[in-house]
Amino acid sequence: MPAPHRRSFLGGVGALALAAGLPPALTACSAGPQSTNDTGDGGSGKDRTLTAVIGYGNDGSWDPTQTASAFCMAANNHVYEGLLDTDPITRVPYPALATEVPKDAHATTWRFTLRSGATFHDGKPVTADDVVFVFDRILDPKTQTLAKGFFASWLSGVRAVDSRTVELVLKFPFPDGLSRLTLAKIMPKHVFARPGAWDDAIKGLAVGSGPYRQTAHHPKSNTTFEAYAGYNGPRPPAFKRMNWLTIVDAAPRVAKISGSGAGAQIADNIPYANIARLEQGGLTVAGGAGMNNLFLMFNTRHKPFDDVRVRQALHYAIDTEKMVQVALRGHGKPASSFLNEGNPSYRRARTVYDYDPGRAKALLKAAGVSDLEVDILAVNVSWIVDCLPTIKSSWDAVGVRTTLAPQETTAVFTKMDQKQDYQVVAAASNPNQFGLDADLIMHYNYGPQNLWMGYTRWADDPVAKRLFADMDRATREPDPAKKKAIVQDYIDVVAEQAVLYPVVHNELMTAWDPRKLTGIRAQPYPGINLLQAKWA
After folding, report:
1. Which of 83, 108, 354, 415 has its CA 20 to 30 A from that of 534?
2. Contact 496, 308 (CB under 8 A)
């Protein structure tokens, strides 16, 4: 979301409390502005502070093994490194902490040598033990992490050969795993092996080896960074300081980047209604279409949502074309598969929820449901809020009395984590934050131990168990064409069941001042990437 999520959604909020012993530069909430109206010491020339506006909260989990928070993931990409990282647009892997990409992607052992002189932000060297520490956490069956779903199916283990060499041992050939290594950010064992340190990571402690180090973190306000002088990797920092503001509400976010008194140089999550005015003001506004979507998630233990006919009825009832034209200003498409149409594995699903209120009423009647009242638990992401009235009017029109109460993303998914009862969640998600391959995308949302399936209470359903078996079979299939066919077939099951399913896929817009910044590329998932940007 995510997007979602989500705690990435997955963690606590509040000020960061740090254990003693870390240098002041690594203590969050230690310095920097505490208001979205204060950008700190702006400096001048090339030493001035870059100010960015992110349309998502910075109070989700910052733990790289856990998070799907748009703000936190984007920030972590500047603070941490993987053995390999990927281009933010093409997602092609390149050497980050490792010195090269393995020549044989189909091998079942990948050996990596760590970059000579690589150090963490406290000055201590990056070692093979740090790499093993992170992967051991991800693969630990007793530790539930989001990253486990991206690695456990194909990665057997990681071992240190010497202080600068590690080997990854695969269960079977899995070339897609190379691009996934960016999701295993290497974290210092001497920091995060301390008691309570993973809780600190959730709350905002970030200590990596990347080009920028975190200097202050104020939940619900802003997070600041500065160039790490000890960085010797492939993406050197171009900005001496950065201040990332979190402004979820659309109007103040747009105001921060527009006009003669603009306080920021770049902002993501630009509302479609503001594009023309921003362009007239000299800004560049660009976007990308991808997996970003509004999804509905049903609690299958809360009747009548255990009945697939009810879930289908509520999807058929939504006037998705109206949603695209009115709420998204044409910058989107009704979902015709779990995957967006631009995904390499896309195929139109056997079940497509074209607007059909008559069919919706018939399905509700067949399920014996009448006088249904639904409270939608929705996130307050601005474009989601714009879409919610179409859902309400559509459901009201088929006799489903609907209540809307958007709230902060963290609040929504805290309720999910606490296993509170609910009926339907409407939220934003974009698995493209993690990658493009369909196997990764589907395992992010579906799987027997998956966080989302825990939210839906659906994992024990016989249909779900058959689905998970087909997903595992696709992961292990070495032939790309056969694998694609298996994926497309099981996505048809996901579409039919509509337990967690997209309503629309939309285009995400980023705006920046080309008179001040160059090297910006708008990405089709939330957040920004400034690793190849610089002052104009």
Report:
1. 83
2. yes
